[in-house]
């Protein structure tokens, strides 16, 4: 397993970090405080990210990607996380890459790819992954949204909740029941253009953290879908969701690991400048030990993230590996974010302080993509086979 960061990766990562610092932090404090969508502002930021090529990372050139391998793509996203102080934007970019674009590349027809990929990759259109419902939550495939055959197409009815990008998306990957009698194996995936009659948005939700990613509900009332709308065959929704979850859980936190390094760098600098009892707080053992813990968390998460990218690149990962990656990094991110606030004290506790914003954002990491409890359940399911093999 070669986890080396090459000179080319370093070069590309440094350029991406500078781009993020210069273009993705504009108006961040105001956007975080507002917590709701400003469509024009979001489109401008999204367009800049797309123009730079952040939505093409890790996708092959035949589908409009930049042709980078996943190890390189992961390092670039890591460095974007160091430069971009907007964790909501990081989540939006990564969610689009791994839960919208990747399923379209892996499961879409040539016609679907030709229609949607150029618009999504250019930033002209914004995509959303619409799985969650109020009544299902962690039991993701226990859906009420239903798509009923009608002639060559379908009629879609239902509601999706807490969907990132819902207030501004042009295309939604919607999971719905097509054969309720067979449970999860009767779930199908559909590419739904939100301009269709019967698609409505709202309400937009205001969150504790990740306030800069527009989030809300999508409702479908007698939405007529063409025969070309299904992604993959009918009944393949559970398989597509499982595959998408592996991508999400192993890859979506790459930028957050970069953010952990940014946190640590800021805390080290602060602890050397801030003095109490006649010396910098870095000289007090309780503070230095806390910083050491942050360093250990970052290093282990960075290695784990690169291993995850290698596993996805070589096809050697599985659901347990994805769950382990997601669980460890999300919990470590939350712990280090709390340590950053403790280190900066009152200055870190102010609402608009970067440390406070990072902490609020980190809480979401133990929830989205499957809660920490769900990840532990998945890991436990694989333990007998893992123990027998090892």
Automatic annotation (TrEMBL):
Gene3D superfamilies: Acyl-CoA dehydrogenase/oxidase, N-terminal domain, Butyryl-CoA Dehydrogenase, subunit A, domain 2, Butyryl-CoA Dehydrogenase, subunit A, domain 3. Transmembrane segments: none annotated. Keywords: FAD, Flavoprotein, Oxidoreductase. Its cofactor is FAD. Residues 236-382 form the Acyl-CoA dehydrogenase/oxidase C-terminal domain. Residues 14-124 form the Acyl-CoA dehydrogenase/oxidase N-terminal domain. It holds the Pfam family Acyl-CoA_dh_M. Residues 130-223 form the Acyl-CoA oxidase/dehydrogenase middle domain. Belongs to the acyl-CoA dehydrogenase family. PANTHER family: ACYL-COA DEHYDROGENASE, ISOVALERYL-COA DEHYDROGENASE, MITOCHONDRIAL-RELATED. This is Acyl-CoA dehydrogenase family protein. The lineage of its organism: Bacteria, Pseudomonadati, Pseudomonadota, Alphaproteobacteria, Rhodobacterales.
